[in-house]
Amino acid sequence: MRDIFRLITSLLLLLSAEQALACERDEQCLNANEWQLGIALGIGFTSNPLVDGDNIPLLVLPDIAWYGETFYFDNGELGYQWLDGKKSSFVTYLNVDKERAFFTFWHPANILLPLNRFNQVTAAEDPNQSGPEQLPISIDDVGRRNWALMGGGRWYYRPDNAEWQLSLEKDLSATHNGEKLEISYQHFWQWSSFHFSTQVKMTWKSSALVDYYYGLDEHDKVDPSYFYQASSGWQPAVGLTLQKKIQNNWLWLTRVSLQKLHSGMTNSPLVEERNIFSVFSGFAYQF
Fold it and tell me: What does the alpha-carbon distance between residue 248 and residue 226 come to, in Å, rounded to a whole number?
């Protein structure tokens, strides 16, 4: 049963990523009341910032979406569209908080593809050095972090060749009772048969959310000297996506993104990286 949960959490992380097979803004490729199914096969990974955490391989990216007149399902997000204008739209939605994905305790590198971990390389121990060295804690040492069901609203504004998004969501499951605010800007270009998009994003995470996942207290199986109360903060991110149509429903795509973590999270003994890096390149097919 535990292996099933590990697989589910990993798939949810893939589904929650930026849509690898998303249509270009000027294309009407999904009609109302129709399913959109696609799959991308390639190579990539998302780095895990936690101590002793495995990078998450991105080898198979599913794309599953359905849009009705008002209701929609889009890669793990269930929502309702209240406003659908040419330039602006507004939706309310439910999705799953993605922070839990880093605590899956799943080791995909042993099954799919050996990936180098982004851990710091430590020097060999000096046999002449006196005194024991304090070992860092591991995600295997801490208590369980649960998934949280988030609910929120998102406003879209679409000027020419661009898109603004502003969203606010809150934990509806009372898992951590935290909030998240996000603002992003995405610009689209086309050159010959290539499509490019760049994205700049700022995400604010509340103290309750960050502390639930990255704080340490008496519920964790660690020495009290490791106890830590995480705090809120802003996390900037940038991303680049390239797409090229090949033939019929096939296309080539590459996605690269970098997210900087705030000090209220990275100061936690659980966290050893200050950034999350994600890259994927491969071929996609839309059914």
Answer: 56
CA-based torsion, 13, 17, 22, 26: positive or negative: positive
CA angle 109, 113, 116 (to 5 degrees): 65
Question: Does pTM surpass 0.90?
Answer: no
Binning pLDDT at 50, 70 and 90, where does residue 125 land? very low
Cα–chain-centroid distance for residue 113?
20
In sequence order, the β-bridge partners of residue 189 are: 196
pLDDT confidence band for 279 (50 / 70 / 90): very high
Distance separating alpha carbons of residues 7 and 108, to the nearest angstrom: 9
The 8-class DSSP code of residue 272 comes to -
Q: Is 140 exposed, middle or buried (0-12, 13-18, 19+ CB in 10 A)?
A: exposed
Give pLDDT tens digits for 177-209.
Answer: 999 999 999 999 988 889 999 999 999 999 999
Containing 9, the helix (H) or strand (E) segment is: helix 2-15
> Quick one: tokens of 225?
């000297």
Rounded Cα–Cα distance for residues 231 and 121 (Å): 28
Q: What is the spatial distance between Cα 115 and Cα 162, in angstroms, rounded to a whole number? A: 35
Confidence of residue 128 (pLDDT cuts 50, 70, 90): very low
Nearby residues of 205 by Cβ (< 8 Å), 6 or more positions away? 178, 179, 180, 232, 233, 235, 262, 265
How far from chain centre, in Å, is Cα 107? 18
d(CA 44, CA 91): 31
Give residue 91's Cα distance to chain centre. Answer: 20
Taking the CA atoms of 196, 81, 201 and 9 in sequence, report the sign of the dihedral they define. negative
